[in-house]
Write a structure and sequence with these properties.
CATH class: Mainly Alpha
Mean pLDDT: 98
Number of strands: 2
Strand content: under 5%
Bound molecules: protoporphyrin IX containing FE
Keywords: Heme, Iron, Metal-binding, Oxidoreductase, Peroxidase
CATH architecture: Orthogonal Bundle
Low-confidence stretches: none
CATH topology: Chloroperoxidase
CATH superfamily: Chloroperoxidase-like
Helix content: 40-55%
InterPro entries: Chloroperoxidase, Chloroperoxidase-like_sf
Radius of gyration: 16 Å
Number of helices: 8
Domain Heme haloperoxidase family profile: 1-206
Pfam families: Peroxidase_2
Distance between the termini: 54 Å
Protein name: Cloroperoxidase
Structural class: mainly alpha
Number of domains: 1
């Protein structure tokens, strides 16, 4: 099967997750984004991102349980648009659900993230500064803005996945061009390589924890 990147076609569905959309755009997941089985999701997380069995299992179980999809045995990328489950406000490159289509990548937001690159790399400080801007903007524009401890856990988990997986072979920082291609085109850049060693659950949780402390401190400052 070809894993050439193709833009989604009319009728295809996509999620607010750049990684899952990239896997569909490259044909590791069904290109239409529909009827994804737990096995397909599990195998693609291992094949594309070299997740350990435990990490991939955790993500699949979490996802199918969260959206109540075990009975159906299938999930669609569109299901992940549901606000208040994994989807949350103040995303890096997507508008809040209350303000527009949460699965459509916003070029100006990608530009803001890339402008926060340091020495040409997206690293923890870049994500922290982008989060700060996104939190302030959402708080101002979205009357129903919600960002409590659950959302801190989710967003810090996404930042952790990004740095530990996309940045796996580049010292846990991501070349700005690779990041731009990942977030904007939802494509795995030609120069990007699959993690050389498996990415484990403790690795993800460790960085997740570090980020949640940073984000809580930022929120405290912004709301005091
Ligand atoms: C079963 C596996 C996964 C599921 C169900 C999932 C689901 C989601 C969802 C629903 C969002 C939207 C959250 C929001 O509102 O911002 C999201 C965002 C995100 N995900 Fe995933 N994801 C998965 C795997 C991954 C992996 C493996 C990576 C990295 C390689 C990743 C990286 C990200 C990033 C960086 C964002 C933030 C996007 C933004 O803030 O604009 N995800 N994910």
């Amino acid at each position: 099967m070809s894993h050439e990147w193709q833009a989604p076609k009319e009728g295809d569905v996509r999620s607010p997750c750049p990684a899952l959309n990239a896997m569909a755009n490259h044909g590791y997941l069904p290109r239409d984004g529909k009827n994804i089985t737990p096995r397909q999701l599990f195998e693609s997380l291992q094949e594309v991102f070299n997740e350990t069995t435990f990490l991939a299992t955790f993500q699949v179980v979490n996802c199918f349980t969260m959206y109540g999809k075990w009975f159906a045995g299938k999930i669609s990328l569109e299901d992940l648009q549901t606000h208040g489950k994994l989807e949350h406000d103040a995303s890096l490159c997507h508008v809040d659900t209350a303000l527009g289509e949460n699965w459509v990548v916003k070029k100006d937001l990608v530009d803001q993230l890339i402008a926060n690159a340091i020495d040409g790399k997206i690293q923890p400080e870049s994500l922290k500064n982008t989060f700060r801007a996104r939190y302030s903007d959402s708080k101002e524009k979205n009357p129903g803005f919600t960002f409590g401890s659950f959302q801190v856990q989710l967003a810090s988990g996404e930042y952790s996945l990004f740095l530990n997986i996309i940045g796996a072979n580049t010292n846990k920082e991501v070349d700005a061009k690779v990041a731009e291609i990942f977030f904007h085109e939802e494509r795995l850049a030609d120069e990007w390589t699959r993690p050389n060693s498996p990415v484990s659950f403790p690795t993800i949780v460790g960085t997740n924890f570090e980020f949640s402390k940073i984000m809580n401190a930022e929120i405290k400052e912004l709301t005091s």
